[in-house]
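Any chance you'd type out a single protein's sequence alongside its tokenized fold?
>
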Amino acid sequence: MLFTFACLPAGFKYLRQLEVKQDILWRVYLCFLGIVVLSVLVIGKAFYIQQVQGEYWRGVSDSLHLEYRTLDADRGTIYSEDGSMLSTSIPFFDIRIDFLADGLREKGGKRFSDNLDSLSIGLAAIFKDQSEKQYKQQLQKAYNKKERYYLLKKRISFHEYKQLRQLPLVRQGRNKSGFIIESTERRLTPFGLLANRTIGLSRSYTDGKKQVVTQNVGLEKTYDSLLRGVSGKRLVRRISGGAFIPVEGSEIEPENGKDIVTTLDVNIQDITQTALMRMMVANKAVEGCAIVMEVATGKIKAIANLGLMPDSSYYEMDNYAIRTAEPGSTIKLVTLMAALEDKHVTINDMIEINNGAWVLKGRTIRDSERSPKSFMTIKEAFEHSSNVAMAKLAHAYTQKPGDFTRHFDNLHLTGRSGIDLNEEFRPMVKDPKKKDWHFQTLPSMGFGYEVMLSPLQMLMVYNAVANNGRLMKPYLVNRVEKDGYVLQEFGPQALSAKICSDKTLQQLQECLVAVCTDGTAKGVFKDAVYSVAGKTGTAKVNDGKYKYTDGVYTSSFAGYFPADKPKYTCIVVIKNRQRAPVYYGGKVAAPVFREIADKLYASGVDDQRVFEANRTVDSSAYRWSGNTAEIEKILKKMAVDYRDSSKGESWGVVFNQQYAPVVKGLEIADKTIPDVKGMGLKDALFLLENMNVKVEVKGKGKVVNQSLTAGAAIGKGQTIRLELN
């Protein structure tokens, strides 16, 4: 018993140790089990992400490294009427190489090594900037470093690009050669300053948000949507170094812009601009413009604008021809027409000039040159540009001022002319019902003040008188073309069949001739071998920068020639420097008109025929439309390599893009006329008749023209005429 009790403490101690050990083991087992469970969960989650959610996360990963870049289309060309290029795009090319392209790496790089020598020789021969050995070392080094987007050459010319395409390795295609061609373009005006502002500018710059912004003016702006074409897209992938390389087969090819054929004549433009420049330089003038219009049609044959630059040179910095200002004495033709048409006077009636000064309610209206007699006929007053006489003719409308301003409406002088230039200023002709009308407004308007008109609008009036009363809308564009095919044509448009009666017209014509034979322009045209009809103008400038008292004058002359058989109407407007010693219209503007008229007459103006160049259709251009699947089936059957930009559209068009066929989708919208040009009759009929459009057909072959514009809404029972060729 004693032994038993003595052993109890030791037994308890052993039991406690055993319990502690078991407790520790359970904790270890529990931690191990937790780790196993956690491992199973991690492995399971990884399996789930990889196998179940794999496509989603791979797409997220790609989105971080892929992005779409815009592919600009080649901008269309602007031509003169005789086919000369006035504004065109010159292509340049950046050449890069993907040295990890499968074609270069397969079979241990056999294709690269086999073509390295010939490629180096070809590059040295084309660019002549390095030897064959240097090119070989350069290419081999880039190949060994596995460059993905190696820049070989930047901004090479189109001629160099064509030579490069003929090299043995390059012509095997992008997948096998690794060559990546990126095209850019630069806008060029081959004739420099000639009509530069009217043709317009197409300039790109990067704004504060690092966005590329294109700024256009002139025809480049008005017809921008046609000239710029349709942009495409290219998917690019980010690689090391922050560079992006194109993803093969992801391009949506752009569709190049259309061409614009203008009414401008390069020869007439050169004559006009040279004559204007000569006078601007001689008189140190601030700004000036000259416009030549074809009488019968309203075509603008030349439009020159010159402004003084800080370095004392002249440049086409603004289009002064469509900016408004107080016209001065050239408006007297409108005043005289109103008085004659409303039978207030005839040109043989006498009017008191009061020795060239007339006081009207405290204001003295003066002639710029003192009249030799107190009384004159209306014709004589017009010849000598009497402000007093014209102010009195306008003042006669005091009781019914609306009868006077109505003539401005009839001559379309209260709104824009509608010429193909979006920057045209809106004229200002005061309304008798408005608050700014006062008792001096009518006489002031009579001789060219308190009214704002552009030189182009004044030219329209003089052209109408030359055209036997027919008022023509001025225009600058003959037609729109694509690859030599005419898409849209523009022709003469009469704004008014008759601006006044024949009797009034005959008197106006007689007075305009008298200005050049006996009046203010007598000295300029006294020895001309042809007859001229026109009117001089001199106006004080009040434009915000200068006041009437600052001594700045605008000189102008508007008229037509030959007076007996008018071919061209011309206006010259020159803003002189402050306190210029010579500023009268007969001394500054009329000589410019004379120089232009002399040279045009010497070139055979009487027998001249309008020459419009018929440019040949581009032999490399083609366009076929139809069912996309059938187009691709034919191309594959013929073993023709093509680029697919159809985006799954059922209907498509195939055309040439950088010497390769491109299939592009045609978006067909419900209740909208589709573009069926380039389709065969079967496809065109199927598409249109399913839209409940009646079809009339002329010719055979494929569709070259359609009477309803693509994109127009479809009306009930609508009929479309298709021309096939």
